[in-house]
Write a structure and sequence with these properties.
alpha+beta; Phosphorylase Kinase, domain 1; Aminoglycoside 3'-phosphotransferase, Chain: A, domain 2; 2 domains; two-stranded antiparallel sheet; globular; disordered N terminus; disordered C terminus
């Protein structure tokens, strides 16, 4: 999961980053047929190791520093091209040097879906991005480009929670019984994921990775970790977004409407509504268990300061879903008894029971739909 950061990159964290920025500007100038370096303007980064800049050119482009020893720029280019050829508006690659990890991309703008969402706009905007998701899920597989989102990978993600949230952030010592309970819950979620039709999964299809532009289809970013996996994964990422919440009844209506559309498109076989909602709920819980460990890891290991305040909403999602199903209720009981008292003492914490209640309003000067 490569959640986008709310702040710019911290150049103190890595030696040589200024040198790479200078080299990126020089390379971009040559790629554009110039005799001098291109000026670069800092942009917010994501949770990974890439850095993004806007070029001071006309038209503007996005210059990317993607260190090849820590990222895979060749795969980024390949996935962007494959999705684009199948109708998804990923940024066009204007130039790339995958050996050194430099890229120039189409500029999709700054207007994230998140900034445009409110009670009035959400129906129309979600209709747009759900239509885009339907297109994405109809893309055929490509040899060796999209690894399987299999049990091993899904389980590895969930195990981030006991390590990084429980042990490292909260100092909670897990007992053998704790680990056994978590493994049983994890296996239930893995079984549910395995039941589902498998499709192309963006893996971070949410309101910070979808760019809204008047008169054009939504732009899709942070697609480089795409995999082949469960059909409800991206739907849960969007409708149970870690940065904004909607009432359960509304979410379930959207989810079932999407299921009907996906069935008509041949993505889904006929499936009972209660089965699809269970798939959707349990897939969302898998993702939120991962995020409950991922955000602390971004803070503790990578020095990313902006993620912990978003955890209360993720906690709310995880507890609401696990309390709804008897098979999953032991997870909620364990979390409430063991972790929640320690979480409540953290300076970033706010009451999870009302997290996400306040709708974000469009920012002044942003595009309105």
């Amino acid at each position: 999961m490569n959640e986008r950061s709310t702040g710019g990159p911290d150049d103190r964290c890595n030696e040589g980053r200024d040198d790479r920025r200078e080299a990126l500007g020089l390379w971009a100038g040559r790629a554009l047929g110039r005799d001098c370096a291109v000026g670069l303007e800092n942009l917010a980064g994501d949770a990974g190791f890439r850095r993004y800049f806007r070029t001071l050119t006309e038209p503007r482009l996005i210059a990317v520093d993607s260190p090849p020893e820590r990222t895979n720029p060749a795969r980024f280019v390949a996935v962007a091209d494959y999705m684009r050829r199948h109708g998804i508006h990923t940024p066009m690659i204007a130039a790339a040097d995958v050996e050194h990890g430099f890229m120039l991309l189409e500029d999709l703008g700054d207007c994230q879906l998140l900034s445009q969402l409110d009670d009035d706009s959400v129906e129309g905007l979600y209709a747009e991005v759900l239509s885009e998701l339907l297109c994405l899920q109809q893309i055929p597989p490509a040899d060796n480009l999209f690894p399987p989102y299999n049990r091993e990978l899904l389980l590895t993600e969930m195990r981030i929670l006991p390590e990084w949230l429980a042990s490292r952030l909260l100092g909670y010592p897990l007992s053998e019984a704790d680990n056994g309970l978590l493994e049983r819950i994890f296996n239930l979620l893995l079984d549910s994921a395995a039941e589902q039709p498998q499709v192309l999964v963006h893996r971070d299809y949410h309101s910070r990775n979808l760019m809204i532009r008047d008169g054009e289809r939504p732009g899709v970013v942070d697609f480089q970790d795409a995999v082949w996996g469960p059909v409800t994964y991206d739907l849960a990422s969007l409708l149970r977004d870690c940065y904004i919440r909607w009432p359960r009844e509304r979410v379930e209506r959207w989810a079932l409407a999407y299921a009907a559309t996906a069935e008509a498109a041949g993505i889904l076989p006929p499936v009972a509504p209660q089965t699809f909602l269970r798939w959707f709920d349990w897939m969302g819980l898998q993702r939120h268990i991962k995020v409950l460990g991922l955000f602390p890891r971004l803070y503790l290991r990578d020095g990313k300061q902006g993620y912990l305040p978003d955890l209360p909403l993720v906690i709310r999602y995880a507890l609401e879903v696990s309390e709804r199903y008897p098979e999953l209720e032991p997870f909620a009981d364990w979390f409430r008894a063991g972790l929640l008292p320690r979480i409540e003492g953290q300076d970033w914490y706010r009451d999870y029971r009302c997290a996400g209640e306040h709708r974000r309003q469009p920012e002044a000067g942003s595009q309105n739909r």
